[in-house]
Amino acid sequence: MIKEGDLVLLSVPGGQTYLVEAGRRSFQTHRESFDLSALLGRPFGTVLTGTKGGKCFALKPTIYDFLMKLKRVTQIIYPKDVGYILLRLDVGPGKTVLECGTGSGSLLLALAFAVGKEGRVITYEKEPRFQEVAKENLKRFGLEEQVIFKNEATGRFEEREEVDAVFLDLKTPWDLLEAAWWALKPGCPLGVLLPTANQVSQTLKTLEDLPFAHTQVLEIMLRFYKTNPERFRPEDRMIGHTAYLLFTRKVLPEENPPEGGPDAD
Predict the structure, then answer these.
(1) Residues 81, 187: one domain?
(2) Is 210 strand, coil or helix?
(3) CB within 8 A of 229, min separation 6: which ones?
(4) Angle in degrees, 0-180, between the axes of helices 79-88 and 106-115, rounded to the nearest 10
(5) 93 within some domain
(6) 151-179 b/e with 16+ CB inside 10 Å = b?
(7) pLDDT grade for 45, boundaries at 50, 70 and 90
(8) Least confident range of 44-53, 162-171, 187-196
C-alpha cells in the first residue's frame, strides 16, 4: 500500500508523467488538480480523480522513471545507453564499480541500484556542486548507502586491482586509462562515454600502448512507435546519437606493467 512519503508516478492521458511524493497535499498539472492524500493506504495502480473530473494512474516508479525524473545540472546518460553499459560492465549484486565523472548521477543511480546493498560504487567528481546534486538524487531514491564519493582523480585512482569494472565519463578520458588499468581486477571491463569522434580517436590511440584487449566502439539509437492500433507507425522524432560507447578489457602484460603502479609517487 502507498504510505506517506512514498514516491509515486502519476500517469495522465496523453502520456505525461509526474514523479510525486505521496502525502497530505495537492498536486497541480496544467489541466487538473489531484489530492495526493487520497492515495494513502491504497495500492499502486489506483486510479486517482482530480477536482475537475480528470483521471490519472498512480504507478510504482521503476529505476527508469527515477533516471528520467532526477534533478540535473549536467547532461545525463540516457536509459538507452545505461542498460547496455550495465550489461557490458557485468554490474550486479555484490560488485564493486568505479565511476569517474559523477555529473548529476544518472548512471550512478543505476549502478547503485544494480550492485545492491552488498555492493558498492566509488564515484570520483571534481565539481562539489555536481556531487551535492548527485547525493540529493541518491538520497531521494534511497540509494545513498551503496555509494562512496571521492574528489578529483589527478592521474590515478586510490584503488589498486580491486574493482570489478570502471566507467569513465569526462572530457579527456585518455588521461585516466592507465589509472583505470591499475584499479581493475585482471580481465575485467572498462567502459568510456565519448560524445565526439575526435575523443574516440584519441582514446583509441592511447589504448594502443596499454594492456587492454577486445576493444569495441558503438552507438545506440532508440525509436518509439505510436501505440494507436489503427495508425501504428514510428514517432516523428527519435533519440539518435547521444554518445559513442567504448568497451575494452584489462589484460596482463607479457613483460612490464604500465607506469604509475601501487608504489608510484
Answers:
(1) yes
(2) coil
(3) none
(4) 40
(5) yes
(6) eebeebbebeeebbbbbbbbeebbebbbb
(7) very high
(8) 44-53
Overall number of domains in the chain: 2
User: Residue type for 224, please?
Assistant: F
29 and 85 belong to one structural domain: no
Same-domain pairing of 54 and 75: no
Judge whether 149 and 102 are in contact, CB under 8 Å: yes
Q: Are residues 13 and 56 in the same domain?
A: yes
Is 143 found in the same domain as 24?
no
Closest alpha carbon to 191 in 177, 206, 201, 178: 177
User: What is d(CA 231, CA 244) in angstroms, rounded to the nearest whole number?
Assistant: 33
Pairing of strands 55-59, 7-11: antiparallel
**One domain for residues 21 and 112:** no
Maximum pairwise Cα distance, the chain: 74
Asked whether residue 154 is assigned to any structural domain, the reply reads yes
**pTM above 0.70?**
yes
Residues 58, 72, 75, CA angle at the centre, nearest 5°?
Answer: 120
CATH for 34: 3.10.330.20
CA end-to-end distance (rounded Å), the chain: 56
Q: What percent of the residues of the chain are helix, what percent strand, and what percent coil, each to the nearest 5? A: 25, 25, 50
Residue 44: which of 76, 11, 71, 86 has the closest Cα?
11
Q: What is the pLDDT of residue 96?
A: 98
Helix, strand or coil, per DSSP, at residue 136: helix
Question: What's the one-letter identity of residue 260?
Answer: G
